[in-house]
Amino acid sequence: MGHESDVPGAAHLALVQGASLLHPETSVLAAMLVGWRTQQQSRLLSPATIADRDRMVRRFHQFTGDYPWKWAPDDVEAWSSSLMSERRARSTVRNYQIVLGLFMAYITDPRYRWAVECQERFGEHPVQICHEWNTAAHLADYEGSPGRRPFSRDELMDFFDYADERVAKIRSLGRKGWLPAFRDAVLFKVIYAWGLRRREAVMLDVGDFSANAAAPHLGRFGMLRVRYGKAMRGGPPRRRTVATVMPWAVEVVEEYLAQVRPCYGQEGHPAMWFTERGTRMSVHNLSERFVLYRRGAGLPEELTAHSLRHSYVSHQVEEGTDPHFIQEQVGHSTASSTAIYTSVSTDYKNRMMRKALERAWEPEKDK
């Protein structure tokens, strides 16, 4: 068995031993990040998560202009205030604080011996700077903007109608833009019809659709395999299979795959959606296109591309779909997460109220 400090990410494994460092402060910080990367890799965290955390720590270093063994709790407060002044979401700032706390926990852990290394080289050692009293607490299940909401059914119809009319108008004028317009219309409908997140949608491949023995009338579009679901705690993307519950969407996808997608000339590429340059669409592309259509349809700014997913959940609830089935469809780990997305319409509430009143009055009528 190796020495106690021979663990992935230990200081003596990340630093060149016995060598005089030309720029010791910069070199030690770089070695700390290399060691932290190794430690996270040993925990099987995804490369994207590790890279995001590395960038965040570097940003904090740039903000303070100092090194980890000199950082203090008030640096966290100043940084958090700066982020909030940039109108960063509370959840984003809290996540940054968590990542910074994890980095500080790593370099102050005796097993990795970074504190000893810093004390010997600089006469100072790092301490934990993220505490309950200077970081944001996670007190609510949902920390997004309270203004965000699902589409009403009328708004959803207006949005889809505008998208369809845009295709017809561009095509009637003989312009080339009808291809991306048709793609956009189908993409937005797919997000709603299968309750997808933005990244889940843009990462779809044609082969992700498959038949459902329980719904043979849907052909090969009875199920949709989502391969890039939201990851948990830095792990790999979670997969799930979504059952098709809106048959009208199958016709839309069939038409797109048969008549529109081939026009991009990317027969050998598996992606569902392409940019005009023939590359796979990105989340940024999708969001930009959504804003264009939302404005064109004259809809409120609080509606986002993610509102289409919210609408799927809310409308399924209104239609009496089993809550556990909805939870499985959208890939939520807990029912409380699905409940956050639920926002039923006034008409639905009124129908439920009338039914409740009818049940309450029935005993009175029997007297």
Features:
DNA polymerase, domain 1; 367 residues; 15 helices; 4% strand; 2 domains; three-stranded antiparallel sheet; 55% helix; hpI Integrase, Chain A; mainly alpha
What is the strand content? under 5%
Output the CATH homologous superfamily of the largest domain.
Intergrase catalytic core
Helical fraction equals 40-55%
CATH class of the largest domain: Mainly Alpha
Tally of helical runs? 15
Count the strands? 3
Distance between termini? 83 Å
Cα shape: elongated
Structural class: mainly alpha
**Major sheet: arrangement of strands:** 1-2-3
Contiguous low-pLDDT stretches (5 residues minimum) are none
Q: What would you report as the Rg, rounded to the nearest angstrom?
A: 26 Å
